[in-house]
What we know:
Blueprint lengths: L13 E5 L6 E2 L2 E2 L3 H15 L3 E5 L16 H10 L4 E3 L5 H8 L6 E4 L6 H5 L2 H8 L4 E4 L10 H9 L2 E4 L1 H15 L5 E5 L4 H12 L4 E4 L3 H8 L14 H14 L2 E3 L4 E4 L7 E3 L9 E5 L1 H13 L2 E5 L12 H11 L4 E5 L1 H9 L8 E2 L3 H10 L3 H4 L3
Parallel strand pairs: 1-4, 1-7, 4-6, 5-6, 7-8, 9-10, 9-15, 10-11, 15-16, 16-17
Antiparallel strand pairs: 2-3, 12-13, 12-14
Helix pairs in contact: 5-6, 8-10, 8-14, 9-10, 11-12, 12-13
Protein name: Phosphoglycerate kinase
Pathway: Carbohydrate degradation; glycolysis; pyruvate from D-glyceraldehyde 3-phosphate: step 2/5
Main location: cytoplasm
Amino acid sequence: MVRSVESLDVRGRRVFLRVDFNVPIKNGIVKDDTRIVEALKTINYLREKGAKVIMASHLGRPKGEFNLEYSLKPVAEYFSAKFFPIKFVDDCIGEKVHSTVNGMKDGDVILLENLRFYKGEEKNLPEFSAALKEFTDVYVNDAFGTCHRKHASVFGLPELVGDKGAGFLVKKEVEYFEKLLKSPEKPFVAILGGAKVSDKIGVIKSLINLVDEIIIGGAMAYTFLKFLGKNIGKSMVENEFLGVVDETMKLSEEKGVKILLPVDHVCSDVFDGEPKYVNSVDIPDDLMGLDIGPATIELFEKEVLKAKTILWNGPMGVFENDNYNKGTFAIANALASSGAVTLVGGGDSVSAIKKAGVSDKISHISTGGGASLEYIEFGSLPGIEILK
């Protein structure tokens, strides 16, 4: 099992805390601080235990070079104003970092500049990991959303550090996913949505070995419907994945796993056009499916309410348009009233849960979209394995 931050001796020691402060910033202002708030429990614990806390994160994709647009300075300013004062260092390795760390007292917290300003971070270059190790006595990872990436701050650095463990956020994620993968209460229903079959195919294949039923909505459903010989009109489709859908359907039949697909649709002739209801599984040639219809909502809700464990990742329609968000909200509300163990991951599903005002009724909201899918697909993640 992964060691927890609580089992580490941190007093007076330099703790490299990998956080996920990849937050939306507009005109230098933090727009959503969810990820910052989620890291506070670990940050405060380390402070109280007298650690010298060195926080490090990425922000956006600066492609290995300094770019002011991706600086973490606004995050440090926001943090200092809202929570408690922290010092910002405008580099993440080298002399500036060393002199700041040398001046730290027990319980001090600093934030380093964006790790991705160096190519060594994403390429996991040994010399970059070694440069981070120079000011690290203890390593703690609390950035679940990056645990699927073999980057220096997630994989290379902890490889070099003996005392290492998971922060509270990562620990909670691991506990939920381990239970989900090893001892879920049955019936176990997975709900998958979003645009592309290609993004989820590995997950679907893994889930077939775990679940009793898979519900598929969103644009990825049209590739499945096309494979089954249904008319999908102008709906989005991945023709190159029809063969993979064939394999998936055969596998699910072998394992006795039911795959549920939409039976009616909310459509339009253009992506943001006026909604037209199509009361059948077939979509006319001049229309595209943009949300699941009321009969599908009823069908999906019925299955959700029978489940004891539910995993949801991906919206049921073009969720950002009010004309096509009813399916997604219906799923959010069904999960909230199901009484099952519910695990939600992926940006759109999480924001639907928040917008529906039912966050407190969900057992676990995962902070990692890609990471949560890969955890299910592979049974673990590089950033988790390296902490064991």
